[in-house]
From TrEMBL:
Protein's name in the database: Mono-functional DNA-alkylating methyl methanesulfonate N-term-domain-containing protein
Pfam families membership: Beta-prop_RSE1_1st, Beta-prop_RSE1_2nd, CPSF_A
Domain RSE1/DDB1/CPSF1 second beta-propeller: 478-825
Annotated Gene3D superfamilies: YVTN repeat-like/Quinoprotein amine dehydrogenase
Single Gene Ontology MF annotation: nucleic acid binding
Organism: Aspergillus pseudotamarii
Domain (RSE1/DDB1/CPSF1 first beta-propeller) ranges: 29-418
GO cellular component: nucleus
Domain of life: Eukaryota
Length: 1261
């Protein structure tokens, strides 16, 4: 084992790495672009975020569903446009479509998309891409941009596409722009038919002096169809020119001599917010804060622009919201001959509609209403064929986005929301209630809450969750559902609907749900169904011919949905009772355990219809059972059926039905690996992943125990001799809770519940041991973003038979909170936020362990409209919020809520914390608040609140102000120290503050001056850790009743947050502005040298981590590592793990293999692909090289062990003439060596490494 001294050898630093993983990407949507990137028949919409894109498909009912996504750009996306590549390109021909969705290609290429997407990346390259449905992947072409332009100028900030898609233009922020001519559409379609894309024909770069504000192609006149017109707005020395470049499309770009026209813009139009090309007379419109100006015939100096007023600023706020986005609706061909209509959208969501005539004149202007969301980023129109209205798509950097229906002379109506929790102003980790026993490593006990704000003052607390969303589509409220134990769903096959059978200990209910939910939901009468509604249902199912089978304690009932078949029942004797049963509708098989005076016997019966009669025939003789059965599951093979019986003693008993006889096969005792005195009774069984390879049969058996433990088994058998060949291999058990675990399967899909948890389990059985992964399921309600069910009593999964949507997601039926909920179960994991609305903009967030409540600070702005000028007052408020609250929080004007403190006008709350000082046996509880003020003499205050739950209503919390301590400087942060002291960062000082009953008396000299304010502090006696705003990390020693400097970071960064990890070498993880996250050590700190060593590791992320928080979850690495979460203002959530040298070396090799792989990292520069993945390990690494990018490794983990094996042995990057690239043999040997060092000797190192990697990267909340 390595010791601290071994790690710090005289000639080297310790090898400590840092693994980062983006758990939740930023929700910010920069652009929403309708673009058919998959095929002409699919209504695709592309949502483009900061570093990724997502394709959603518009389906019936004005709803967007997730289709696919791409997040491997490894760079920020700076601009995006859509290029038409259909064989009928002119925009006028596209207008002929009107609202139709029919194909337009004159010679259509079957299955090819008519559009491609153009992106510019911060890595200085253009990317052209589309999605190939036949190969199920994105096809892209990327073209590097000139690298001799300074970083500040950001080549690619502006891009434009010519209306007929003959050329694209790209510019830097200033001085440079380039033009690329594109190949003809038939050529591009031919390339796409072969899964290729190379659209650029020619390119040419130009120089222009000044800042390029806007760049757009203009629409040529019909008589100038062969012209290409490019317009730039260039600002220099406080003046702006409009510059137009004109050339003939038939000329070669490099030989063309563009005609350049230049026009000085008036002073009031020198900084417009929008440049809009108009389809008439080669005109364009400039939109400013208050006016619109239309310039006709390009930049014809003989014609003066026509100017039109815009809406006046809001009197109440005295602001002038900017008009920031525009979109052109699709109209029919005849209308577009003489009109060009435009939607304008203001940043506050105000919509205006412009009607533009044939000569470019604004003929009418109508204000349509408010979108109720911020629109400073994305705005467009979905051409979906909505009769009588337009579908508007909008999103911003703050607040939610949405899909809106805009009908003529009506206000926009939101039909779907796109939740956005940015900007994040604070975050907190809430630990789940203490479990009686430790849970599985796959089940995280951390809950992450963030608080956000918006320009509408509609702040919120958002719980960020990851998993599979089940969105509620229908809720059925019936009396008695709260006692429901089981639910079964059975497709009727007649109208595409589903029959739902629910059961409680005393009765059963049969419901008929139509597929479209538009018809009335009705209960089926007992007489009509042939079932027994007065008894508990033990098992149920439906056969292929529509026979409903119900098993109760005394009988087997056969009902039917067809009038041609008669219902019947098989009753057992008065001295017999059925204890447990299973129904296999596919095989028409019913298996029951029957108790009588002679004991327990296993019976099997098969349904055999004869004419219009239904009858049950015995399958073999009953088999005696010498144990207490709890559950039964049946699986069918070509030779017969296998019956799995779970017993109360923790054993599994297997029986086989072969040649219409029942034979006992074997029994298996589970090893739950827990020494506690727990129940091993198997409450439920489910079978998934059935594979038949000739006589060899394999499947996975999932066992749910009454004690909350999941035990999977891999089962293999040979049908030639089932009894002697069956082998059951147990997988490591996983504890998911402390109550009964219910598991249910349908095909390869398995769902399970335990307590308040709901999971989907995905399994693979490619090797000797099955591999099972848990994914949380979150039930959501579009009408109430704070909703989540408290308890899920029972559930079932079904699919509608005749759905008009291909690949319809499974429909989840569940009983929760006393209601039947019908939910759409999504296919893929994603972020599933839960939002608790606030009456103001949230700024700070904390959690009180004593109150079991969140404490949030938010601000509200009020106006004194009687004053002239109008006065604005912004005050801070405090509120206590239940983490499980299912409703938005009301404002302070709600008289039913207890009193809450509020700050003075202009006073901001800078920090909140819970403090529990102790004196002897007495414990005090305070909520401590730090504030900052500008105009008062005492610019900072520390306020002590006493809070407790009301005895008359424990759901409410009452509070009062106990103490207020004032400081000359603003308070930035506070940290508890010891039993009685608070360390306060005020101004440029650290001041100890203690209550009157404190036994410690700090000297007046204990105040410690700091060069810059400490924005974050934590204490680990005797040290005080501080992230300062200019000097990065500083550490003070607080011993001997005074503060002295202990250590400081050798590099001065703008510090943001930190977490002290500790350990033998005293590690601290610190974040600073610019996206830097550093792993620092205090080793080698002496009294004479207080400068900390160079960072052991540095991660350079795409966004700054404003808050680091320690988690409770431990990694599954051989040496455990505490999880640290990091949140950024743009809503991104990271997870960090420290790595020991063995872990880092293996992950570093895997990362290098991924970087050179063209599928995992398609945008890696060619020179980096030629590097040896196993090379240079003996050299001293820079801190940045000790960072492992978990986002890259996650792309490898989803591809499985076979792809890793391919990467290890491929010769694609090796040439004997360049041995420095590394031979496959050497790389594979190095991999075996590193895997052995970390995981030990294994029979399948590639598979074991992939399993370990998958667990390490697993997202658990």
């Amino acid at each position: 084992m390595e010791t601290a001294d071994d790690l710090f050898s005289p000639d080297s630093r310790p090898k400590m790495g840092l693994l980062s993983r983006t758990l939740i990407p930023s929700p910010i949507v920069q652009w929403i672009l309708p673009a058919r990137l998959r095929s002409e028949h699919q209504n695709d919409v592309v949502f483009i975020g900061e570093r990724s894109l997502q394709i959603k498909e518009a389906v019936s009912g004005f709803h967007l569903e997730d289709a696919t996504s791409k997040s491997d750009f490894d760079s920020n996306i700076m601009a995006a446009k859509v290029i038409n590549v259909g064989t009928e390109l002119p925009w006028e021909a596209q207008m002929k479509l009107g609202a139709s969705t029919a194909p337009v290609n004159s010679e259509p290429q079957i299955g090819l998309p008519p559009q491609i997407l153009l992106l510019s990346l911060a890595s200085r390259e253009l990317v052209f891409l589309y999605y190939s449905t036949s190969s199920d992947q994105f096809i892209h072409h990327h073209r590097p941009l000139p690298s001799d332009v300074s970083t500040f100028e950001r080549f690619g900030r502006n891009i434009a596409v010519e209306p007929r898609s003959r050329a694209v233009a790209v510019s830097a922020s200033s001085d440079y722009f380039g033009v690329f001519t594109l190949k003809q559409p038939p050529v591009l379609q031919s390339q796409m038919a072969h899964h290729q894309l190379d659209p650029i024909s020619e390119e040419r770069f130009f120089r222009v002096d000044g800042d390029i504000i806007f760049m757009e192609f203009l629409y040529p006149r019909p008589e100038e169809d062969g012209k290409i017109l490019l317009l730039l707005l260039v600002a220099q020395d406080q003046i702006t020119h409009a510059i137009c470049y004109e050339w003939d499309a038939s000329e070669h770009l490099r030989q063309a001599s563009p005609i350049v026209t230049k026009r000085l813009l008036p002073f009031e139009e020198r900084l417009p917010t929008m440049l809009i090309p108009l389809t008439k007379t080669s005109s364009f419109m400039l939109v400013t804060t208050s006016t619109m100006a239309v310039y006709k015939n390009r930049l014809d100096p003989r014609r003066q622009p026509s100017r039109y007023p815009l809406g006046l600023p809001d009197r109440e706020s005295r602001k002038s919201p900017l008009w920031t986005r525009w979109a052109r609706p699709l109209r029919n061909w005849l209308y577009n001959q003489k009109h060009d209509d435009i939607y304008l959208c203001r940043e506050d969501g105000q919509i205006s509609y412009l009607g533009i005539g044939n000569e470019g004149e604004v003929e009418n202007q109508a204000h349509l209403g408010q979108l109720c969301c911020d629109v400073d980023a994305a705005f467009d129109i979905l051409h979906f064929g909505n009769e009588g209205g337009d579908l508007l798509l909008a999103a911003g950097n703050t607040g939610d986005g949405g899909l809106f229906v805009q009908k003529a002379r009506d206000h926009p109506r939101c039909v779907q929301k796109f939740m956005n929790w940015s900007p994040v102003t604070d975050s907190v980790i809430v630990r789940s209630p203490n479990q009686q026993l430790p849970l599985s490593a796959d089940v995280a006990s951390d809950r992450l809450f963030v608080c956000s704000t918006s320009s509408f003052a509609r702040g919120a607390i958002v719980e960020l969750r990851h998993g599979i969303e089940a969105q509620i589509g229908l809720v059925v409220s019936l009396e008695g559902l709260s006692g429901t134990r089981d639910i079964w769903t059975m497709p009727t096959g007649t109208n595409g609907g589903v029959i739902v059978l629910t059961s409680d200990p005393m009765s059963s209910v049969l419901l008929d749900l139509p597929a479209d939910f538009e018809e009335e939901i009705c209960a089926i009468d007992e007489a009509d169904s042939g079932l027994d509604c007065g008894s508990q249902t033990l098992a149920a199912g439906i056969t292929d011919i529509g026979i409903i089978i119900q098993v109760t304690e005394r009988a087997i009932h056969l009902g039917t949905t067809s009038e041609s078949m008669r219902c019947s029942r098989y009753e057992y004797g008065y001295d017999q009772s059925i204890t447990v049963a299973a129904v296999d509708g596919f095989a028409s098989l019913i298996v029951v355990a029957v108790r009588n005076q002679g004991g327990l016997h296993l019976h099997a019966k098969r349904l055999t219809p004869s004419g219009n009669q239904l009858s049950l025939t015995d399958v073999g003789e009953p088999v005696r059972m010498h144990f207490e059965p709890v559950c039964i599951s049946v699986i069918n093979f070509d030779f017969g059926s296998l019956i799995c019986v779970g017993a109360g003693n923790g054993k599994i008993f297997l029986y086989v039905i072969e040649n219409e006889s029942i034979t006992f096969v074997s029994e298996k005792t589970m090893d739950v690996a827990y020494n506690e005195d727990i129940s091993k009774a198997i409450d439920s069984l489910a079978i998934v992943n059935k594979v038949e390879n000739g006589p060899l049969k394999k499947f996975i058996l999932l066992c749910g125990l009454r004690s909350g433990i999941l035990v999977p088994f891999g089962v293999a058998l040979d049908s030639v001799n089932v009894v002697s060949s069956i082998v059951m291999t147990q997988v490591t058990p996983q504890r998911l809770g402390n109550t009964s675990l219910k598991v249910q399967s349908r095909g390869d899909l398995a769902l399970l519940t335990c307590g308040q948890g709901f999971w989907q389990i995905s399994c693979t059985y490619d090797s000797v041991m099955p591999d099972c992964t848990l994914q949380r399921i979150w039930i959501t309600d579009q009408n109430n973003s704070a909703y989540h069910p408290r308890n899920i009593h029972s559930f079932s999964v079904a699919s509608f038979a005749n759905s008009d949507v291909e690949d319809l997601s499974n429909t989840l039926f569940c009983i929760a909170d006393g209601q039947l909920m019908v939910c759409t179960l999504q296919r893929d994991e994603k972020t599933v936020p839960r939002r608790i609305g606030l009456p103001g903009s949230a700024t700070k967030l904390a959690y009180s362990q004593y109150l079991k409540s969140l404490v949030v600070a938010y601000s509200r702005t009020e106006f004194d409209t009687d004053a002239d000028p109008i006065k604005r007052f912004t005050r801070s408020h405090i509120e206590f919020v239940d983490p499980d609250s299912q409703q938005a929080i009301c404002g302070p004007e709600d008289g039913l809520r207890p009193w809450r403190p509020q700050g003075a006008a202009g006073e901001k709350i800078s920090c909140i914390l819970e403090w529990t000082p102790k004196k002897g046996d007495e414990e005090y509880h305070f909520i401590v608040i730090g504030t900052a003020r500008k105009n008062q003499q005492d610019r900072g205050r520390v306020i002590f609140l006493q809070a407790s739950r009301m005895s008359s209503d424990p759901t409410q919390i009452e509070c009062n102000v106990k103490y207020v301590h004032k400081f000359e400087g603003p308070v930035y942060s506070i940290a508890p120290y010891g039993n009685f002291t608070l360390m306060v960062s005020t101004g440029h000082e650290i001041v100890p503050l203690e209550p009157k009953f404190s036994q410690t008396r700090w000297l007046r000299a204990a105040r410690y001056p700091v060069p810059s304010p400490a924005v974050s502090m934590s204490s680990h006696e005797p040290y005080l850790y501080m992230s300062t705003s200019r000097e990065s990390l500083m550490i003070l020693n607080a011993s001997e009743e005074k503060l002295v400097l202990h250590a400081y970071d050798r590099q001065k960064h703008d510090g943001l947050s930190h977490v002290h990890i500790g350990g033998d070498i005293q590690l601290t993880l610190a974040s600073s502005r610019g996206g830097r996250v550093s792993l620092l050590t205090e080793k080698r700190i002496t009294d004479n040298d207080k400068m900390m060593p160079v960072a052991l590791c540095e991660a350079h992320l795409s966004t700054s981590v404003t808050r680091l928080s320690p988690g409770t979850w431990q990694s599954t690495m051989p040496t455990s590592s505490q999880v640290i979460y990091g949140t950024a203002m743009n809503g991104t959530v990271y997870r960090f793990l420290t790595l020991k040298e063995k872990e880092w070396r293996l992950l570093y090799l895997l990362q290098n293999l991924c970087i050179r792989d063209t599928f995992i990292c398609p945008f890696t520069p060619k020179r980096k692909r030629q590097r040896n993945p196993a090379g240079n390990e003996s050299l001293e690494f820079q801190p940045s090289q000790m960072h492992i990018n978990g986002d890259i490794l996650s792309r490898l983990s989803i591809r499985g062990p076979s792809y890793l094996m391919y990467m290890l042995v491929t010769e694609e990057f090796y040439s004997p003439s360049t041995p420095e690239t590394g031979s496959p043999q050497a790389i594979y040997e190095r991999f075996l060596e590193l895997s052995k060092d970390l995981l030990g000797e294994t029979s399948s190192p590639v598979e074991d490494v992939m399993k370990w990697l998958k667990r390490t990267l697993h997202v658990g909340f």
